[in-house]
């Protein structure tokens, strides 16, 4: 698990950064939709959508960047993982498309708004579940022979991937609830608080279940988490996760509007670090490392220059949009 900061490693960390930003930024968008069935008032549904209306489509920029970075920087990994994950990846993309269509049409069709709301929920649920299943499928490993995928059409579907799919849905729902706490007031904020605590407990239980199951998937995972010297790197992650979880539950009890969202983001960040501890430098666990799958160094350098120039631009306009639309969203706000 040595860390040699060459071009390949820098590009791998850049790709991971883009994927993480997509997960947390589009995660609360998807989470808002997952909470729709738990909020009864159609007027509250409008407020929920209006909290994400100015930023939701921009959040998906990071998905494009992360996917493009894998294709350009690690083409062999892309060639192996795509056939292994065709079903969940296609399901995710269709879910995101349907989510976007429903998002726009619910404001244009008053008589059929309830149907578009259901489409919004269904598309978001499929996308979130597919992302979790894909993560679990990568973690458990895929069959590789002769630099190509050698498994079957349904190898991605196992009890572990179902567990990771449900876990991601719970985490996104928690992100959505904490976002509503941050952005709304009155009855809707009270409902978000009521939902956030059980969602936090369920998410923590899911994190614990996935964390306990992961070391048994591959011997390398077990060695990293339970043998020296990698134990010294791995041990702080669950300890910090426990501290953040405690702080999250206390902030919900104290009804501090800003902290639940920040602490939920921290919880996701620690989960991401845990994934890094388990996987790095594997990109296809047990089969390909980032160096095995890397494009030629000249190609990586060319792509990395563009990414380094592009990421600050994306960060600036993203931060600006969040700053412009800061503050609470009330019933008088509207999406046009």
Largest sheet: 2 strands, antiparallel
Strand order of the largest sheet: 1-2
Helix content: over 70%
The helix-and-strand class reads mainly alpha
User: Would you report the number of β strands?
Assistant: 4
How large is the share of residues in beta strands?
A: under 5%
CATH architectural designation: Up-down Bundle
Amino-to-carboxy terminus distance: 50 Å
The chain-level mean pLDDT equals 89
SSE ordering: HHHHHHHEEHHHHHHEEHH
CATH topology descriptor:
Formate dehydrogenase/DMSO reductase fold
Structural overview:
The chain has 336 residues and is mainly α. It has one domain (7-324): Formate dehydrogenase/DMSO reductase fold (Up-down Bundle). The chain has helices at 7-35, 42-52, 56-59, 61-73, 75-84, 86-105, 113-140, 159-183, 186-213, 219-226, 230-234, 236-254, 259-279, 290-293, 297-324, and strands at residues 144-145, 148-149, 282-284, 288-289. The strands form two sheets. Strands 1-2 form a two-stranded antiparallel sheet. Strands 3-4 form a two-stranded antiparallel sheet. It is globular.
């Amino acid at each position: 698990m040595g860390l040699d900061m060459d071009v390949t490693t820098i590009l791998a960390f850049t790709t991971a950064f883009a994927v993480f930003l997509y997960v947390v930024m589009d995660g609360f968008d998807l989470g808002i939709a997952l909470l729709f069935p738990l909020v009864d008032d159609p007027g509250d549904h409008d407020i929920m959508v209006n909290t994400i209306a100015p930023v939701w489509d921009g959040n998906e920029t990071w998905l494009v960047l992360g996917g493009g970075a894998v294709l350009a920087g690690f083409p062999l990994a892309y060639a192996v993982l795509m056939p292994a994950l065709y079903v969940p990846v296609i399901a995710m993309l269709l879910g995101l498309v349907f989510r976007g269509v429903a998002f726009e049409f619910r404001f244009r069709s008053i008589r059929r708004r309830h149907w578009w709301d259901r489409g919004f929920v269904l598309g978001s649920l499929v996308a979130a579940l597919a992302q979790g299943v894909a993560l679990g499928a990568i973690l458990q490993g895929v069959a590789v022979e002769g630099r190509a995928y050698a498994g079957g059409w349904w190898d991605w579907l196992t009890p572990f991937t179902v567990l990771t799919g449900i876990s991601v849905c719970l985490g996104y729902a928690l992100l959505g609830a904490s976002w509503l706490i941050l952005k709304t007031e009155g009855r809707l904020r009270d409902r978000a608080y009521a939902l956030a605590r059980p969602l936090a407990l369920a998410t923590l239980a899911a994190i614990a279940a996935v964390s306990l199951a992961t070391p048994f998937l591959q011997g390398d995972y077990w060695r990293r988490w339970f043998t020296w010297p990698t134990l010294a790197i791995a041990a702080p992650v669950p300890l910090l996760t426990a501290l953040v979880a405690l702080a999250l539950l206390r902030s919900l009890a104290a009804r501090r509007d800003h902290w639940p969202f920040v602490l939920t983001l921290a919880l996701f960040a620690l989960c991401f670090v845990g994934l890094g501890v388990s996987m790095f430098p594997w990109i296809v666990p047990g089969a390909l490392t980032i160096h095995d799958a890397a494009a030629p160094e000249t190609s990586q350098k060319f792509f990395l220059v563009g990414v380094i120039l592009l990421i600050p631009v994306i960060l600036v306009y993203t931060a600006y949009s969040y700053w412009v639309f800061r503050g609470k969203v009330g019933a008088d706000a509207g999406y046009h």
